[in-house]
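Q: How would the C-alpha cells look for this protein?
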Amino acid sequence: MQFVALIVIIICLIAIAYRDLKTGLISLAGILLAASLFYYFSPTETAGGKTKRLLDDVELSQTSISPGYADGFVLEVRIHNNNHERVLQNFTIQSSLSDCNADQSQCLIIGEETNVAKLRIPPGQARDTKINLRTKKLNPIQGAAIWKHEITGVR
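A: Here is the predicted structure in C-alpha cell form.
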C-alpha cells in the first residue's frame, strides 16, 4: 500500500514539475519534510504504549562476555522476537558491570554502556549477534564481576 502511494506521489510530482518547475520543487521539499517529521516522531525507545509492548516481546538469552580489543569486552547474545505478528529491528541494549561482594548483597556499578544492535528478526525467530563494549580503563575489581544486560529500546 505504501509503495502504491509513493508511485502516485511521484507521478503527481512529475506532472506538476512538467508544468511549473518551482511548484514541483516546493512540493518535493514539502513531502521530504513531512516524511522526515514522520520518521522522527515514529515510536522509538523513548516512546510509551506501543513500544512498551514491543519491549515485552523481546528476550535475551545465551549471553556471554569475553575480552575484546583495547581493554573492551565482546558481548555475544541471542535476541528472541516473541511477537508473532511483527518484524523487529534496531535493538538498544544497555550493559552494566558491577563489582559485588561475595554474597552479592552489595554491588557497585563501575561501568555502563548503551549500544544498538542493527538486526531484523522475523516474528517468532531469534538471531545471534556480537556487540563490542568499549569501556574506559576500569579499576581492579575487588569482589565478583557481575554483568547485566537489558533491552531498553526496539524499533
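Residues 89 and 155 are 5 Å apart (CA to CA).

The beta strands are 58-67, 73-81, 88-100, 107-121, 126-133, 144-153.

Upvote if useful.
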